[in-house]
Amino acid sequence: MFYKVLDGVKIIEYGNFISAPFCAKILADLGAEVIKIEEPCCGDESRRQAPFLQDIPGLENSGLFQYLNMNKLGVTLNPESATGLKIFTELLRSADVFVENNPPKQMKKLKLAYTKAKKINPHIIMTSITPFGQTGPYRDYESCELVSAHIGGVGYISMREGDISKEPIKLPAHLFSFQAGLSAAVATLSSIFRQSTTGLGEQLDVSEQESVIQNLNSSIARYSYAGQIMARTDAAGHAPFHILPCKDGFICAAFVEEAEWRRFVEVMGHPEWADNELFKDFALRAKYWDALKPLMVEWTMQFTEEEIYRRSQEKAVPLGAVRSAHQVLQDKQMAARQFFVEIERDGSKLTFPGVPYRFSEIKMESPSAAPLLGQHNEEIYCGRLGYHKRDLAKFKEASVI
What we know:
Strand order of the largest sheet: 3-2-1-4-5-6
Largest sheet: 6 strands, parallel
Mean pLDDT: 93
Order of helices and strands: EHEHEHEHHEHHEHHEEHHHHEHHEEHH
CATH class of the largest domain: Alpha Beta
CATH superfamily of the largest domain: Crotonobetainyl-coa:carnitine coa-transferase, domain 1
Structural class: alpha/beta
Number of strands: 11
Distance between the termini: 26 Å
Strand content: 5-15%
Radius of gyration: 25 Å
Number of helices: 17
Shape: elongated
Low-confidence stretches: none
């Protein structure tokens, strides 16, 4: 864990891949005890996702799984069996929160839907993350990151520079699954506070589609207020609002106000072309960007990211370096704040992002590595639920655990 803010809060996670595991990770990082339940045969889907330690695929080698599941306890369990469901029920009885991201039909079939969960434990908070929510005509539709990005409207506006005749694209990686997990964690924290004051539980219905739409910037407002539909374009509406190359990488020049451009002109030493009528305001600079860009690049290519960044900071120009992963890991600001943490796994030290906050009056604790598949079966099933080791052997033989 990192901080014991939620010390004493007990969470059962029956999640897969990113959204539910990330939600539970945020709570585990705050000190809650999270018991992660995985399928006995193959575990969480993220165990099979690259990157892998030493580029060797394996259930214990996924970097994604390691990041999403640090600070958790891990057990294997098959709730489709009668014995597995009985054990699952026993775990829920002593839990404060139940986090899951399974299809509503599946949870109903398993007899683990909220109507059943609250009978098992009226106090429990059940955080359910699904692609479209627990209600509505889409509730039972299957989805993935690609579908969420486009049905949420992000793909329609996701190209700025390039060939606008090509199909829309989604943003990289699994941004929206992480966003849904973050939204779920915020709601769960609020519900934990309510639970602590009233003793009441509830179901939190989190929609990944709604999480995507919530982060559409101004596109919804533009249509609502002005009937304007934002679309992909190969030219920004004002300039500079672009990424430009420099001596050792790239910089991002995103000037919203005219005064910012004028200050950057001073940073460049006030070249003669900056006073050209074609570049006198942001709209004209955008219109004639093809002419302006090479003039700016001629200057930027003379300097490093750091040199341009420092000169710009001195003039209060909002310009930043475009950092690679390597540069982020080496960043002196991150080092000063001790943001990155090291986890030991099979003799190797793995580096992961820490938490983006600090508590002034609470000591930061060292994180623990993600659990091996079924690592804590004996601790949880024998130490807490009262089963014997011989029971575990029988459960394993019957594919219950």
